Amino acid sequence: MNVRFIEGAPKDRFEISSVSDCLNGPLTVSINLDGSAGGLIFDTTSKGAGVEVFQPFELTTGTVLVDQAPTVMDGDTALSLRLSALPKGQVVAFTLDVDDTGSAREITVSGAEIAGARVKVDSAEGSRSAVFDATAQARVEASSCDV
């Protein structure tokens, strides 16, 4: 599974895609910004911890695959999506605003600022996780059914 963070204005985007025949579900995909280089948070309201622009969570692609979308509160650092499955080649994507909490406090988040954040996948095959790299991507290794 690949998870990609795409900086955008006014909405940032996360894309979750499958490169495996094994993600038949159900499965839970969790994104945790704790440990990110920029001290990232989700900025979902105008009165919260974020900077200037804010955007609530919105599913944009693959909604039929999502059994349960998260409720993301302003200032949260983690979210989880419950998926019925994620067939190979399919994408689940969502938008919201991500801000840093570092000294610069800018509304633009670079790929390097998300480095260190984690993605975890829980399924019947067990749990697997990966860390976002400086290119704003995390690749969760395939389960044993791909071997």
Summarize the SSE layout with pairings.
Layout: E1 2-6, E2 12-17, E3 27-32, E4 41-42, E5 58-61, E6 66-68, E7 78-83, E8 91-96, E9 98-99, H1 111-114, E10 118-123, E11 126-131, E12 137-139
Antiparallel strand pairs: 1-2, 1-12, 2-8, 3-7, 3-10, 4-9, 5-8, 6-7, 10-11
What does this protein structure show overall?
The structure is a single chain. The strands form 3 sheets. The protein has a 5-stranded antiparallel sheet with strand order 5-8-2-1-12, with no helix packed on it. Strands 6-7-3-10-11 form a 5-stranded antiparallel sheet, with no helix packed on it. It is mainly beta. Helix content is 3%, strand content 37%.
Low-confidence stretches: none
% residues in beta strands: 35-45%
How big is the Rg? Answer: 15 Å
* Main beta sheet: 5 strands, antiparallel
Counting helices, strands and paired strands, the structural category is mainly beta
Helix count from the secondary structure assignment? 1
SSE pattern, N- to C-terminal: EEEEEEEEEHEEE
For the residues shown, what is the average pLDDT?
88
Share of helix, binned? under 10%
Report how far apart the termini are. Answer: 15 Å
User: What is the global morphology?
Assistant: globular
Beta strands, count: 12
- Record the strand order, biggest sheet: 5-8-2-1-12
What are the main properties of this structure?
mainly beta; five-stranded antiparallel beta sheet; 12 strands
In short:
It is built from 1 helix and 12 strands, in the order βββββββββαβββ.
